[in-house]
Design goal:
The complex is a heterodimer. Chain A contains 6 helices and 5 strands; from the N terminus they run H-H-H-E-E-H-H-E-H-E-E. A 5-stranded antiparallel sheet of chain A has the order 2-1-3-4-5. In chain A, strand 1 and strand 2 form a beta hairpin. In chain A, helix 1 packs antiparallel against helix 2. The radius of gyration of chain A is 22 Å and the shape is extended. In chain B, about 45% of the residues are buried. The chains are: A alpha+beta, B mainly alpha. Chains A and B meet through helix 1, helix 3, helix 4, helix 5 and helix 6 of A and helix 1, helix 4, helix 7, helix 8 and helix 10 of B.
C-alpha cells in the first residue's frame, strides 16, 4: 500500500509538471500573437504563462534549489518542452550562406555541412532556432562557430561573410504559377583572421 | 461496534473514499508484460538506429569548440544555466580525463555504449542496467547537443526514462530465460503502462490544440509548407499540387485526430480506428518527411501504450504479489 501511495504521488506531481510545461508553451504562442485568437487574448495568455512558469519554479531566484531541482527533473524526464511541433503554423526554413574570400578577389560559396541526413536535420533545427528572438544573444557566437567549421576545411580563406536568412516558400497557387522560394536575409557577420565585425 | 458519530463520519467521507478507489483502480490495473516487451524491443531498435544514423557525425556534433560543428560547450552552458544537476557529456569527459582518456576516446566510448545498450535492450539482456545506461548517455548527448536537438530527442528521453523505471525484465527477455526471474507484479506493470498512456494523451491533446490555433492547418497550407520544407522534401511539389484539394481535409483531420485522441483512444469502438490513424500519420511523417527516428519513437510508444491487448487471464497468471 505504501509503494502504491508513492507511485500515486509521483504520478500526480509528474503530470502536474507536464501540464504546466505544456500550458506555458501554449500560452507563449498565444501571447506572441502567432495564433488565430484575437489580440486581446495575448494579455491573458501572458498572465497564464506567468502562472505556469511560477508552477515550474521559473519565477524564483536563479540559484533557488527548488527551481534547479525542478529543472533537472524536467530535463531528466524529457518533459522540459511542450508538444507544439509545427504549430500553430509551420515556420519558415532558414539558411546560412557563407561567402569565402580568398586572396586576389576570388570568392567561393559554401554552407555548413554534415555527413548524414540525421545530422542534417539537427543542423536545420539549429538554424531555425537562430531565427528565434530568444536566441539573439548567442547568434553571433553560433554563426562564428559554424563559419569556423567551414574555415577549417579552407585554411587559405582570408575573410568569411556569413549571411543568415529565411527562405519563404511559394504557396500552392504561386507554385503553380511558376514562382519559386525567395531568400530573405535577416543578418550577416564578417569574420576575418584578426577579428570579426557585425554588419 | 461503531458509534453513531463514526458512522456519520464514514458516510460523509464515502464519496471521497469511492473516488479515491476509482483513481487507484484506474492507476493500477492488472496487466501482463507484453506491452513492456514491445516497449523494450522498440526502444532498443530506436537507440541502435539513433547511434548508427549519427555515427559519421558523432565527433563533429558533440566535439568541443575547436573540433566540433558548434561545440558542445554552448549547449552545456545553456543547460547548466537551467540547472547544474542536468547530466551532460562534459561530466563524462571530465571523468575520462581522470583516467587519462582523451575527449575523442570518451565520445567514442559514449557512442559504443549507446549502440551496445540498444542491442542489449533489443535482446533483453541486462535489461534494467541497459535501460539506465541508455537513458543516461542519451540524456548527456541530448543536453550537450541541446542546440542541435529536435522533438525526437525529447521523446526518446521520456520513453527511456519510463522504460528504466518500468518493472523489467519481461517474460520474453533473455534475462528471464537465463535467470528465471519471478513474474512481475501485474499492477506495477499496469501502472507504468498507464503513465505511458496518459503521457501520450497530453502529447496529442496539446499538439492538436496548438495546431487548431493556427490558420494554416485549416486550409491545408501548413501541410504543403511542411512537405516542401527542406530538408523534408521527399515528395516532389509537382506531385503534391495534384492533391491540392485533399490537403485542407488532411490538415483538419490531423487537428481533430490529435485533439480528440485523449477521448477516442479509450473508447472500445473507436480505439483501433484512432490508433490506426495515429500510426498511419507517424508512418507518413517518417516516410514523406524523412523524420525516421521521430516517427519510430512515437510508433513504439503508441503500440506499447495502446496497441497490445491486455488479456486479463494472462495478466492474472503473471501477477505476483498484488499488494504493493
Amino acid at each position: 500500500m505504501f509503494l502504491r501511495r508513492i507511485h500515486t504521488a509521483w504520478f500526480g506531481i509528474h503530470f502536474f509538471l507536464v501540464t504546466a510545461v505544456c500550458l506555458a508553451g501554449l500560452f507563449w504562442l498565444i501571447a506572441e500573437g502567432s495564433t488565430i485568437l484575437p489580440p486581446a487574448s495575448a494579455e491573458y495568455a501572458r498572465k497564464g504563462e506567468l502562472v505556469a512558469s511560477w508552477c515550474l519554479g521559473k519565477e524564483a531566484n536563479a540559484s533557488n534549489p527548488v527551481r534547479l531541482t525542478i529543472a533537472a527533473y524536467l530535463h531528466a524526464a524529457g518533459i522540459q518542452a511542450g508538444y507544439t511541433f509545427f504549430a500553430p503554423n509551420v515556420p519558415n526554413h532558414h539558411q546560412l550562406n557563407l561567402e569565402l574570400f580568398y586572396d586576389g578577389d576570388r570568392v567561393e560559396y559554401e554552407s555548413p555541412r554534415v555527413h548524414g541526413r540525421a545530422a542534417a536535420l539537427r543542423l536545420d533545427s539549429l538554424l531555425d532556432r537562430l531565427a528565434d528572438q530568444r536566441y539573439e544573444p548567442i547568434r553571433e557566437v553560433i554563426v562564428k562557430r559554424l563559419a569556423f567549421s567551414v574555415w577549417r576545411e579552407h585554411p587559405d580563406v582570408k575573410k568569411v561573410r556569413a549571411t543568415f536568412g529565411s527562405i519563404n516558400p511559394p504557396g500552392m497557387n504561386e507554385f503553380e504559377q511558376g514562382q519559386t522560394e525567395t531568400f530573405q536575409p535577416m543578418f550577416s557577420f564578417d569574420f576575418s583572421v584578426r577579428g570579426e565585425e557585425q554588419q | 461496534m461503531s458509534s453513531p458519530t463514526s458512522d456519520a463520519a464514514k458516510q460523509k467521507f464515502q464519496p471521497l473514499h469511492r473516488s479515491w478507489q476509482r483513481i487507484l483502480s484506474f492507476l493500477f490495473p492488472s496487466e501482463n508484460d507484453r506491452w513492456l516487451t514491445v516497449f523494450r524491443t522498440g526502444l532498443g531498435l530506436q537507440v541502435t538506429l539513433y547511434a548508427l544514423f549519427l555515427r559519421n557525425d558523432w565527433h563533429n556534433l558533440f566535439g568541443s569548440g575547436g573540433r566540433g560543428l558548434v561545440g558542445r560547450e554552448l549547449g552545456e552552458a545553456i543547460s547548466s544555466f537551467d540547472s547544474p544537476f542536468i547530466p551532460k557529456l562534459g561530466w563524462l569527459i571530465a571523468a575520462g580525463r581522470n583516467l587519462n582518456m582523451s575527449e575523442e576516446a570518451v565520445l567514442t566510448v559514449a557512442w559504443v555504449a549507446l549502440l551496445s545498450t540498444g542491442c542489449l535492450l533489443l535482446l533483453g539482456l541486462l535489461s534494467r542496467p541497459a535501460a539506465i545506461v541508455a537513458w543516461f548517455v542519451h540524456l548527456c548527448v541530448a543536453e550537450s547537443g541541446g542546440l542541435l536537438a529536435y522533438g525526437a530527442d525529447n521523446f526518446m528521453t521520456t520513453a527511456l526514462f519510463y522504460l528504466m523505471l518500468s518493472p523489467l525484465p519481461d517474460r520474453y527477455s533473455f534475462d528471464h530465460w537465463v535467470t528465471k526471474t519471478k513474474p512481475k507484479n501485474s499492477q506495477a506493470l499496469g501502472f507504468w503502462r498507464r503513465v505511458l498512456q496518459v503521457h501520450l494523451c497530453f502529447v496529442y491533446f496539446i499538439g492538436g490544440l496548438a495546431k487548431c490555433l493556427g490558420n494554416g492547418w485549416w486550409d491545408g497550407s501548413n501541410l504543403w509548407r511542411s512537405l516542401i520544407r527542406p530538408p523534408f522534401t521527399l515528395v516532389p511539389p509537382d506531385l503534391l499540387v495534384h492533391f491540392k484539394y485533399v490537403l485542407p481535409l488532411l490538415g483538419i483531420s490531423i487537428c481533430l485526430l490529435e485533439v480528440s485522441y485523449p477521448v477516442f483512444i479509450w473508447l472500445k469502438r473507436t480505439h483501433w480506428i484512432w490508433l490506426g490513424c495515429i500510426l498511419a500519420m507517424h508512418a507518413s511523417i517518417g516516410l514523406m518527411m524523412g523524420l525516421y527516428l521521430f516517427a519510430l519513437v512515437l510508433i513504439v510508444m503508441n503500440v506499447a501504450a495502446f496497441g497490445v491487448p491486455n488479456t486479463s487471464s494472462t495478466a492474472q497468471a503473471s501477477s505476483g504479489d498484488t499488494n504493493q
